[in-house]
Amino acid sequence: MNKIKSYFMFSREHRGGIFLFLLLLIAFQLSYFFFDFNPIQKQQPSKAELQWLAMQNEIDSIKHLNDSLKHVIKPFNPNFITDYKASVLGMSVKEIDRLHKFRSLDKYVNSGKEFQQITKISNELLNTISPHFKFPDWVTESNNLNNIQYSKANSNFKKFPQKKAIVPMNINDASKEDIMKIYGIGHKISENIIKEKENFGAFASIEQLKYIWGISPEIYNDIQMYFYIGQNPPLKTIDINNLSINELVKFPYFDYKLARQIVIFRSANDDIKNIDDLTKIKGMPTEKIQIIALYLKL
Q1: Which residue has the higher pLDDT, 146 or 118?
Q2: What pLDDT is recorded for position 176?
Q3: First vs last Cα of the chain: how many Å apart?
Q4: 225 burial level (CB within 10 Å; 0-12, 13-18, 19+)
Q5: Other CB atoms within 10 Å distance of the CB of residue 163
């Protein structure tokens, strides 16, 4: 018994060592309980997050593209500048309104200086955008050769001066070059007019031109001064009472839906006899009925 008891008899140093060991053991257990010693695992993004990242990358690329393009200014005629373009170029609402008010009087500016006098834009903005102004060649040449001066009585700038007296000509005999003499008509619009004339065989009314893409009210007003319809134009007339739907749709003002309504109406009413009958057909463009009637065999 005494021998066993001797195992539990410690000196002062031994007891101190055992006590320190117990403290370290308790501290280790507590640290293991409160701290996570597992290696940190990177969380994989969800499917929605991946989609958002892909979309954000696309948005960033579009923004970058827009930033690279926004400083590119294509040549334009300041007389026909849109509100949006004017705003993008840096014009204020008041400056844009001054130009609209001036243009409402059927007047035009012929140079950058005149544009500034009308709109009251700053010299800095004028120097930025005026190099991109594009006026008709004959206006530019006239400005360079004659240095057009305006009298005090005509302090508001006149409409573009005419090079010579207007000599109207038959629109059905006009060439592409003849049509391009109209201010505001370029290659594309003149091609549209020639193509439309070929579709009809000939124009039956000057009014037809205002329905062509690219023809603004200002251009149409000039067309009425420069062109007219000659006698007995070679129209491609159509037999509206006997053509099939597929044949009717070849007429420029008829689409498939309208051609079908024409066939239904003439079947139910014993043919189309006059203009009044045209007004009763569903979908018939009322503003074009007088023109359409000129191409019909009734």
Answers
A1: 118
A2: 93
A3: 140
A4: exposed
A5: 10
Please state the three-class secondary structure of the chain as a single string. CHHHHHCCCCCHHHHHHHHHHHHHHHHHHHHHHHCCCCCCCCCCCCHHHHHHHHHHHHHHHHHHHHHHHCCCCCCECHHHCCHHHHHHHCCCHHHHHHHHHHHCCCCCCCCHHHHHHHHCCCHHHHHHHHHHECCCHHHHHHHHHHCCCCCHHHCCCCCCCCCCCCCCEEHHHCCHHHHCCCCCCCHHHHHHHHHHHHHHCCCCCHHHHHHCCCCCHHHHHHHHHHEECCCCCCCCCECCCCCCHHHHCCCCCCCHHHHHHHHHHHHHCCCCCCHHHHHCCCCCCHHHHHHHHCCECC
Q: Which residues pair with 170 in a beta bridge?
A: 228
CB 201 within 8 A of CB 260: no
Radius of gyration of the chain from Cα atoms?
41
Cα separation, 27 vs 124, in Å, equals: 76
Residue with tokens 């948005």: 59
Contact between residue 270 and residue 226 where contact means Cβ atoms under 8 Å apart: no
Reported pTM:
0.45
Domains of the chain listed by start with CATH number: 78-154 (no CATH), 169-228 (1.10.150.310), 245-293 (no CATH)
Task: At 8, list the tokens.
Answer: 């539990």
pLDDT tens sequence across 107-121? 888 888 888 998 999
**Residue from 151, 225, 196, 227 nearest 291 by CA:** 196
- Nearest 5°: the CA angle 193, 74, 183 is 35
Contact call for residues 240 and 262 (beta carbons, < 8 A): yes
What number is the average pLDDT over the span 213-234?
91
One-letter amino acid at 135 equals F
What token pair was written down for 130?
């005026």
